[in-house]
Design goal:
The protein is α/β, with parallel strands linked by helices and about 210 residues long. The protein has two domains: about 130 residues, Rossmann fold (3-Layer(aba) Sandwich); about 60 residues, Arc Repressor Mutant, subunit A (Orthogonal Bundle). It is about 55% helix and about 15% strand. The chain is built from ten helices and eight strands. The strands form two sheets. Strands 2-1-3-6-7-8 form a six-stranded parallel beta sheet, with helices on both faces. Helix 8 packs across helix 9. The longest helix is centred in the middle third of the chain and has 17 residues.
Amino acid sequence: MKLLVVDDHPLVREGISSILSSNEDINEILEADNITSALEIIINKKPEIVLVDLKLGSQNGLELVEKAKKLNSDAKFVILTSCLLQEDFFKAEKIGVEGYILKEAFAEDILYAIKLIKRGKKYYDPAIIGNRNKMKEESLLLSTLTERENEVLMEIGKGMTNEDIAKKLFISEHTVKKHVSSILSKLGLKHRTEAALFVNNLMKIY
């Protein structure tokens, strides 16, 4: 099996290559530090699996995946990242990456993921799946709010006071307080700061 490691940090590339070299199924490990050189290798040497750092200096590793897929590359792509952001994962999932792994993963996890992907399956880091499931649960909670409560929650997320919200929505401040109390109860939150964090975290992935 031929692999390509794409990372703009030489030490990281060497470390990953060292981990991969312990697998007897891998007979060649190629390296690239940017999208242009990686594309050349993908076109000319046709690696079966490409491990891509999400952040390649000022470039985004997902750009490499998109460009390679437009060229009808048969390579399977695994994103490696040290930062867990749902928007990055959802975009990677949308463009069809076969794997998404946090850099803090153990060596055996990376090797296991590669074996799985080589067999035509996908591998997403358990931490990412757990976080995604949590987001889905929070989205379901959000659906229990009434339309007016959703409007109030959006304004809380913007840092608006009850008085500000009352003026914007043309309702009394007393009514706003009732909505806020209902929102906190339905979402299982203690105070409006938690409500603001709740809605702002959800909005990041849409």
